[in-house]
């Protein structure tokens, strides 16, 4: 991944002016990945919804989410698409919190190509109590 071209950058935001941008290095092997990792405070017996929006310059990259033992993902398109994962309160046990260490992981990977033509944008990442 091109560290200089990647990160929170202006432009391509879904609702604001910035978006997390991941860009492969031109001329490298035609695949790359990036991770966004957070460890929010999680309260047992509470329902949560994790949501994010993602798009790419060229279709075909993948964004996956893992949160409290649940996972979902999408293949990107040139328009923003959402991933939403709901974790019911009954599943949010102290044991699950300890096992997952409350880690929220967003995996971004792009196998078809590299360089700026395969940039991926992720925006509006939220974890809310429902």
From TrEMBL:
UniProt superkingdom: Eukaryota
Protein name listed in UniProt: CBM-cenC domain-containing protein
Species: Ophiobolus disseminans
Lineage: Eukaryota, Fungi, Dikarya, Ascomycota, Pezizomycotina
């Amino acid at each position: 991944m091109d560290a200089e071209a990647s990160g929170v950058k202006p432009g391509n935001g879904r609702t604001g002016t910035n978006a997390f941008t991941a860009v492969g290095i031109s001329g490298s092997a035609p695949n790359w990945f990036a991770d966004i990792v957070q460890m929010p405070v999680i309260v047992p017996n509470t329902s949560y919804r994790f949501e994010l929006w993602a798009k790419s310059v060229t279709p075909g990259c993948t964004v996956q989410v893992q949160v409290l033992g649940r996972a979902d993902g999408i293949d990107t398109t040139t328009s923003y698409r959402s991933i939403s994962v709901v974790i019911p309160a009954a599943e949010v046990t102290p044991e699950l919190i300890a096992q997952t260490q409350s880690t929220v992981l967003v995996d971004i990977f792009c196998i078809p190509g590299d360089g700026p033509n395969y940039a991926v944008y992720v925006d509006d990442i939220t974890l809310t109590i429902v």
